[in-house]
Amino acid sequence: FKPEDVKVIFVLGGPGVGKGTQCAKLVKDYQFVHLSAGDLLREEQSRAGTEYGELINNFIKEGKIVPMEVTIVLLENAMKRAIDSGKRKFLIDGFPRQMDQALKFEEVVVPSQFTLFFDCDEDTMSQRLLERGKTSGRADDNPESILKRFRTFKETSMPVVNYFDGQKKVVKVDGGKTIDSVYKDVVAHIADRLK
Ligand code: UP5
Ligand code: MG
């Protein structure tokens, strides 16, 4: 596909900040295609006999970042399928979460338009994840994994946010409020770039 035909918004923020929740609302109101890198990895992992299944599961439980060769191919394939069916606006959720991924994706796939960054304190995010963990079945919604995810986010993923911020390509929204008030802020901040 031609990069100029495609629009990509990265959606970043700590574990449990509400990336998936806010993306779902944007999809409903503005017809984006929502691609969560974590969801794509979990799908790939649960596919029987997959070469990467075991590897992915271990990385996720440890809150570590899966090698980008895996993730970028999954994202690219999902984007191609969507583009073939006439879509062109993408929310890429939970990616890139390491500098090399950011540089590689923008080089080989398409440069992002901007990054929507949700900010929130760890106590709030932790409570949300533990609550979700009662029913989510996610291998990483437990106290040990959550601490590791927070550490990876601070050490490895925040540099990505800071890098795009240095390019004046970050829109920061407070993710600590109610779902509806966070969404109101999102729409208010990026209203002119949702088309
Ligand atoms: N909730 C949401 N918003 C709320 C609000 N405003 N008020 C109260 N509650 C709110 O929300 C989390 C929970 O909180 C839900 O129960 C929700 O109802 C509630 P959600 O929208 O799911 O938050 P989200 O930010 O999407 O949280 P998620 O757990 O998905 O974030 P992570 O970034 O940790 O998970 P992700 O799936 O992106 O990645 C998982 C792992 O995959 C990573 O740790 C890593 O090991 C691996 N990975 C890679 O290796 N590479 C990648 O590129 C991507 C992932
Ligand atoms: Mg998510």
Automatic annotation (TrEMBL):
Catalysed reaction equations from the record: UMP + ATP = UDP + ADP
Protein name per the record: Uridylate kinase
Gene Ontology molecular function: ATP binding; UMP kinase activity
UniProt GO BP: 'de novo' pyrimidine nucleobase biosynthetic process; pyrimidine nucleotide biosynthetic process
Description of its domains: Consists of three domains, a large central CORE domain and two small peripheral domains, NMPbind and LID, which undergo movements during catalysis. The LID domain closes over the site of phosphoryl transfer upon ATP binding. Assembling and dissambling the active center during each catalytic cycle provides an effective means to prevent ATP hydrolysis.
Entry's localization field: Cytoplasm; Nucleus
This enzyme's EC code(s): 2.7.4.14
Organism: Dactylellina haptotyla (strain CBS 200.50) (Nematode-trapping fungus)
Binding site for a ribonucleoside 5'-phosphate: R42, K64, I65, V66, G94, F95, P96, R97, Q101, R138, R149
Main location: cytoplasm
Residues given in the record as ATP binding sites: G16, V17, G18, K19, G20, T21, R132, K177
Keyword Translocase: no
Superkingdom of this protein's organism: Eukaryota
Keywords, sorted A to Z: ATP-binding, Cytoplasm, Kinase, Membrane, Nucleotide-binding, Nucleus, Pyrimidine biosynthesis, Transferase, Transmembrane, Transmembrane helix
Region span, LID: 131-141
Subunit structure: Monomer.
Record's function text: Catalyzes the phosphorylation of pyrimidine nucleoside monophosphates at the expense of ATP. Plays an important role in de novo pyrimidine nucleotide biosynthesis. Has preference for UMP and dUMP as phosphate acceptors, but can also use CMP, dCMP and AMP.
Gene Ontology terms: cellular component: cytoplasm; nucleus
Region (NMPbind): 36-66
Span covered, complete protein: 147 to 341 of 341
Family (UniProt): Belongs to the adenylate kinase family. UMP-CMP kinase subfamily.
Cofactor comment text: Binds 1 Mg(2+) ion per monomer.
Co-factor(s): Mg(2+)
